[in-house]
Amino acid sequence: MSTALALPANGDANSWTDSEKALVVASGLVSRGTLAPRPVVEAFISHCHRTGLDPIARQIYCIERGGKWTTQISIDGARLVAERSKQYQGQTPAEWTADGITWVQVWLSKENPAAARVGVYRAGFQAPLYAVATWDAYNAGSPIWKKMPALMLGKCAEMLALRKAFPQDLSGLYSAEEMDQAAPA
Fold it and tell me: What is the pTM of this model?
């Protein structure tokens, strides 16, 4: 039995078993002691069932930022969804640029990259589907972005490319790296 199947069948907290309540808490649906609104819980359960992702493995989770709840997917969860599609045929290495002309596969500069790109290969397509994430659009200024700027920007580009290649499976699901910039100041 998968963990996703252990989720509550609905958003009615009064009908949940103790195990289901614990899974709801572990999934991020409780913030500061308050359960997410029922529509958020039901949407989260639906996303878990639709994608087959495991909230305990943090492949998918819910997060509250400034009173707004969103379902987020980890990069590992997005990779798993793509792999399960049987259409995923790999991807290019992440590349970074300072000027949009010269792209490198290893970012060694002390300066932050201006952009990152990743291409995803999908069966039936002649070329990889590339996506580019720019520093100005995604840099959240948080400690992790300051410590590992190339990694964070590369994850954004990869998530964009995976969603571009697999829109049916990943539409409406965003990674923490993409959403960091949306956090209230």
Answer: 0.85
User: How far apart are alpha carbons 121 and 169 in whole angstroms?
Assistant: 15
Question: CA-CA distance, 24 to 10, in Å (whole number)?
Answer: 11
Q: Could you please report the per-residue DSSP string of the chain?
A: --GGGGS-SSS-GGG--HHHHHHHHHTT-EETTEEPPHHHHHHHHHHHHHHT--TTTTSEEEEEETTEEEEEE-HHHHHHHHHHTT-EEEEPPPEEESSSS-EESS---SSPPSEEEEEEEETT-SS-EEEEEEHHHH---SHHHHH-HHHHHHHHHHHHHHHHH-HHHHTT-B-HHHHGGGS--
Which of 157, 150, 170 shows the shortest CA–CA distance to 120? 157
> Which residues on neighbouring strands pair with residue 97, listed in sequence order?
103, 115
CA distance 121 to 134: 21
Minimal CA–CA distance to 163: which of 110, 112, 111, 88?
Answer: 88
Closest CA to 24 of 51, 50, 48: 48
Per-residue pLDDT tens for 28-51? 888 888 888 999 999 998 888 888
The 3-class SS string of 113-142 reads CCEEEEEEEECCCCCCEEEEEEHHHHCCCC
Condensed to tens digits (0 to 9), the pLDDT of residues 116-145 reads: 999 999 999 999 999 999 999 999 889 999
